[in-house]
Structures are given as C-alpha cells and as structure tokens.
Amino acid sequence: MSECQHQLKLFALNSNMKLAKQIAETMGIELGKCSVSRFSDGEIQINIEESIRGDDVFVIQSTSVPVNEHLMELLIMIDALKRASARTINIVMPYYGYARQDRKARSREPITAKLVANLLETAGASRVITLDLHAPQIQGFFDIPIDHLMGVPILADYFKSKQLDDVVIVSPDHGGVTRARKLADRLKAPLAIIDKRRPRPNAVEVMNIIGQVKGKTAILIDDIIDTAGTITLGANALVENGAKEVYACCTHPVLSGPAIERIQNSKIKELVVTNSIALPEEKKIDKIVELSVAPLIAEAITRVYEMQSVSVLFD
C-alpha cells in the first residue's frame, strides 16, 4: 500500500483573481479547477472540478465589494471542500470584511467581525491567513489558528526606495498610532498625530496636529481608506501647517463613493496601496501606486503547508 501524500492545492474565487494568479505564479503551481455559477434566482453554485481528497487546500478570497457576495461564495466553497474530504481548509483573506464592527460602540449594535469568524469556523475552515486586520484583537474571535500578516514592511520598502528627505510619519487619528510607529521605526523617522473629532457621522474636523511637520515630507498611513474623507482632510491640514509635501499609504484600498475624486483633488502627491483588494480600471488614477502582496502571501502559504514558522515574515 503506497504512502499517502498530502498535496497542496490552491483555489481562487472571484474577489481578486489577478492576485491569486500572482500568488500561484510565485509559488510555481497551477490554480485548482473550480467554477462559480449562479442559479436563475441568483443563488451561488460552486463545482470543484478535481479531486482534493486528503489534500491541504488553500482558498484565496478577499471579502471586498460586493462584500456579501464574496463572503457567501467563500462559505459555500468551504462547505464543498469539507464534503469533498479535504484534509485541511485554509482560508487566505487578504482583506477581512466586516472588521470595522469589532466591538459594541453603542447599545444594541452587532459585532460583525466576530460573526464572520463564527461563520468561517462553522462552515469548516481549519485556518485563516489574513493581512492587516482593522483591529488586532479580531484574532481572538477565532478558535482556529490565524496568521496575521503585516503590510507595513512592503510599504516601508517602497518609501525607502524613494529616498525622501526629512520625513515624518503621520497617524490620521489616535487609534492608528501603533501602525504609524511601526512605519516610523522602519524609516527611522519621527511621528506626528492628527487630533480630530467627528461632530456627526461621516463628518470629520481636524482639531490639532501633535508633532512637528513644518518643512517636512509627511507620510500618512492607515489600514483602510474607504471614502477618503479622513485621509484627504488630514493631508490638507498638514499642508496648511507647513508640510513640504504629503504622501499617503494604506494596505486596503476600499475606495468607495467619492474616494477617487477626493484623492484626485487633494494635496496628496501619491497614494501607495497594496493589491489586497482588486482595483477596477476606473479607480487606477495616476496618483495611486499599487504594490503586490503576492510574494508575502505565497511565502506564508508555503510555510504553513511545510509546517514552518510564519513569525519570521513579521520581521
């Protein structure tokens, strides 16, 4: 009787096929064969077109717009893999949707980040690999292993290559200070913080800038840029306070609603993002620079499959 070999199989759903192909190419393997179709009423049908019995399966799917469609695709895929006797089902979520509701800020609010964790586990996921969670404590919502990768090293390497002079790293709010400090440490630059308040929902007022920005090249960093209100207002405030020029960066370019128009008309010289979320052509303006997370994710998948340490990727 031959010894059983647990093969690595890599599948991709519809959220970010370009990134999935880059990851497969980096790893030197082919994407697994599966099809996603719709019944006439819109229900999702998934067919896995090759045997995965006893294999270690990795599924690449960001839960980006349309969020509910992509989340449902993923849950159905996990169920299909479980019923097809996959040995392990490893979910690779470059962007974890619903992460911004990670606690009860007001009475009678849901905690959707926890709900999504429950859904993935109940469907049958064995492990999650994700990138820059909106709140690191979301890792604790899972009772399965979760590998939390960071986008800061990729962003830092890009800015190092630009050899900018007299840099200051700026957090757009108090909540992002830890992230901003990581970038500041890598670029050996000082830190500044924008003190803001929200007088009403979706309205932001900059109250004060803590730190020295006059005459400096400012780099704003956030994990998610959605409507771009905070980041563009912050950039304008930095210029008004004497910053020489302003760059901005984030891991997840949600860029919904008026975001592209706001960025185009803002004081931001360049917005650096990763491809954790697929950018449609109409959002690829000259100001936006896209960096690939494919090498990082490919290395993480390989290390998980080979039972090696993933923590070295955080250095």
UniProtKB/TrEMBL annotation:
Tell me the keywords, alphabetical order: ATP-binding, Cytoplasm, Kinase, Magnesium, Metal-binding, Nucleotide biosynthesis, Nucleotide-binding, Transferase
What pathway is this protein said to act in by its record?
Metabolic intermediate biosynthesis; 5-phospho-alpha-D-ribose 1-diphosphate biosynthesis; 5-phospho-alpha-D-ribose 1-diphosphate from D-ribose 5-phosphate (route I): step 1/1
- Xref: InterPro entries: PRib_PP_synth_CS (IPR000842), Pribosyltran_N (IPR029099), PRTase-like (IPR029057), PRTase_dom (IPR000836), Rib-P_diPkinase (IPR005946), Rib-P_diPkinase_bac (IPR037515)
Residues annotated as binding ATP are D41, G42, E43, R100, Q101
Q: How is the cofactor bound?
A: Binds 2 Mg(2+) ions per subunit.
Per the record, the major location class is cytoplasm
Offer an example of a GO molecular function term for this protein.
ATP binding
Localized where? Cytoplasm
E.C. numbers: 2.7.6.1
Q: Where is D-ribose 5-phosphate bound in this sequence?
A: R198, D222, D226, T227, A228, G229, T230
Query: Which residues does the record give as Mg(2+) binding sites?
Result: H134, D173
Record's GO cellular component terms: cytoplasm; ribose phosphate diphosphokinase complex
Question: NCBIfam families from the xrefs?
Answer: PRK01259.1 (NF002320), PRK02269.1 (NF002618), ribP_PPkin (TIGR01251)
Reported function: Involved in the biosynthesis of the central metabolite phospho-alpha-D-ribosyl-1-pyrophosphate (PRPP) via the transfer of pyrophosphoryl group from ATP to 1-hydroxyl of ribose-5-phosphate (Rib-5-P).
Name recorded for this polypeptide: Ribose-phosphate pyrophosphokinase
The opening ranks of the lineage are:
Bacteria, Bacillati, Bacillota, Bacilli, Bacillales
